[in-house]
Design goal:
The complex is a heterodimer of chains A (about 180) and B (about 160). Chain A is an alpha/beta fold. Chain A is about 50% helix and about 10% strand. The chains are: A alpha/beta (about 180), B mainly alpha (about 160).
């Protein structure tokens, strides 16, 4: 029994050493590498509403680009119409949360057709995309995703954009 | 004449096999996670278990713990410590998977890939994790350092 006790003590000491070395290495490399994460920051997490909802998937800019190139993604721009007109992700539909119900049949049809719906707004701090997702999920869209880096993240990487009204019918109708 | 029970004689070799399998697996997952820190952080966040402020530090630290313990197991260095950490990690992963499945979350595992298009988690993932946990416990109990760097070097001298 004492042999096992000694083994546990040895294992704990070794584990502490490994963890210490790993942490030093991890945070040093993270600081030095350009794609390192901000350690002291709040990672964007979709807010949960009162209603039970399936956890939305969070997509990075690279994921979005890949899905875009394979024709699987349909982006939902939850920002104001004027910002959408100035520029939006390629092929994005302008779906502010106020117009969510109007687009619901189309969005459900797209999802059933195998498209991945990904909502975005300005960037990490904005809530419009999350609010839009919450509404869509409550109305029958099964698994809308979130591009949490948003427009700022997309532009920051110099990725392609579309300009103009796009699905401008709703942009126009914003004014009505 | 060797009076040792057959299972006791075989156990170190089974432990060696498990050690190498676990080592390669953890080294691979560590590299995959380290290459895409943002994607891994998103995968961690999707579980909604860690507070948002801890997601990034966890996503930075874990891949290196995985890589170092993986290398240690393959080389046969600090085996008790490495197998203890790996068993602990697999236990935590099992808990996270169990909670996510119980909540009915439609998320990707984030285990061997950071792609969002990976298959959603299922109970199979939990069973696989518990299998790996059993292997780690076996290594902790029965590994005697067969084919470890120290023993290989000792034999050469």
């Amino acid at each position: 029994m004492s042999g096992f006790h000694e083994k546990i003590i040895t294992a704990l000491k070794e584990a502490a050493l490994i963890l210490f070395l790993s942490l030093v290495l991890a945070f040093t490399i993270n600081t030095l590498r350009p794609s390192g994460l901000a350690i002291i920051s709040v990672h964007a997490q979709p807010k949960e509403a009162g209603a039970p909802m399936i956890n939305p998937r969070i997509y990075s800019a690279d994921d979005c680009l890949q899905l875009l190139q394979t024709g699987k993604a349909v982006f939902l721009d939850a920002r104001e119409a004027a910002l959408y007109k100035m520029g939006h992700l390629p092929g994005a539909l302008h779906v502010p949360k106020e117009k969510a119900e109007q687009y619901l049949p189309q969005l459900i049809g797209l999802e059933r057709g195998g498209k991945v719906l990904i909502a975005y707004c300005d960037g990490q701090g904005c809530m419009k995309a999350q609010e839009l997702m919450k509404i869509l999920q409550g109305k029958g869209v099964r698994a809308p995703g979130l591009f949490s880096e948003g427009w700022e993240g997309w532009m920051g990487k110099g990725l392609p954009i579309d300009e103009g009204a796009g699905n401008g019918s709703d942009s126009t109708s914003d004014k009505n | 004449m060797d009076q040792t029970a057959p299972q006791t004689r075989i156990s170190p070799y089974i432990a060696l096999a498990f050690r190498v399998v676990l080592g390669c697996m953890f080294l691979y997952t560590g590299v995959v996670h380290a290459l895409d820190p943002k994607g891994f952080a998103d995968a961690v966040a999707n579980y909604r278990i860690l507070p948002a402020v801890l997601v990034n530090p966890f996503a930075v630290a874990l891949p290196h713990v995985e890589m170092i313990t993986g290398i240690a197991l393959i080389l046969g260095i600090l085996i008790p410590g490495s197998s203890l950490i790996i068993a602990g990690l697999l236990f935590v992963f099992a808990l996270a998977l169990g909670i996510a499945l119980a909540k009915g979350l439609d998320i990707s595992c984030g285990c061997f890939t950071t792609s969002k298009e990976a298959q959603s988690i299922s109970w199979i993932y939990l069973v696989r994790d518990l299998g790996l946990l059993a292997m780690a416990v076996f290594v902790f109990y029965f590994d005697t350092g067969v084919a470890s760097i120290r023993k290989i070097r000792g034999l050469k001298r």
